Known about the structure:
CATH architecture of the largest domain: 3-Layer(aba) Sandwich
CATH topology of the largest domain: Rossmann fold
CATH class of the largest domain: Alpha Beta
Mean pLDDT: 92
Strand content: 15-25%
CATH superfamily of the largest domain: Glucose-6-phosphate isomerase like protein, domain 1
Structural class: alpha/beta
Number of strands: 12
Strand order of the largest sheet: 2-1-3-4-5
Shape: elongated
Order of helices and strands: HHEHEHEHEHEHHHHEHEEHHEEHEEH
Amino acid sequence: xxxxxxxxxxxxxxxxxxxxxxxxxxxxxxxxxxxxxxxxxxxxxxxxxxxxxxxxxxxxxxxxxxxxxxxxxxxxxxxxxxxxxxxxxxxxxxxxxxxxxxxxxxxxxxxxxxxxxxxxxxxxxxxxxxxxxxxxxxxxxxxxxxxxxxxxxxxxxxxxxxxxxxxxxxxxxxxxxxxxxxxxxxxxxxxxxxxxxxxxxxxxxxxxxxxxxxxxxxxxxxxxxxxxxxxxxxxxxxxxxxxxxxxxxxxxxxxxxxxxxxxxxxxxxxxxxxxxxxxxxxxxxxxxxxxxxxxxxxxxxxxxxxxxxxxxxxxxxxxxxxx
Length: 323
């Protein structure tokens, strides 16, 4: 097979799967809504199951659900029949995937799941199958043909099952009000974990925070700025609330304007209403704000606008945070 033919065949496979996914999108009906509501109102967990390629898809869907706010586990049907049925409770929802809807291991689970009292959602490509008929909600794929030239290897059907699982997970994510902070709490490691670090994990607090009062002389300001080593100092009013910031750049600009540091107060030099950060926000968002405003430091304030921390661009970059 020549290179042109290889590329042509690859494109045909992709295009065939895309066409079927478009049909799947159009085919969505109230069954999908019922499946979402069943999972959303579930007081237990979602247990996905399937064998072969469907089992791999079920494992991925369980992982996606778990990472986006819906507790889920994968249960191999064969293991379930040899003792692992004990993981299923009446308050759980079973998400069973089978192209034919007749996978022996999955079908064998049905009477026991019914006995336990858990609800069943199925994803099948045969609406008249045993699995479909014994499900509380059936999600029908309706794939006409696999992308496999032999129409045997699960390709389009497995892709459609995966996409349908993603659709469930993303709708549930929005309905639960799942946030970036929630996502960060579930992904503490690796590149994604670094990207999702919070400001509170990287900032400096307590005695490390450079703070002066707006009526303090500039001599005291410079000592505080130099001793803390951030190239900036937070300026507070009589109530301890942030009213300004003085950076190395503010000092240079003040001197260039002819200002006299020996006879000036903090309020004479400070930049009013400085950009700030919150402890619970993503460090990546703080980094974006710094780059947008071409600054290198942010004062972290509480709900009363009192300084409680400071974070430097270098703190974020050293942690490998990106956005």
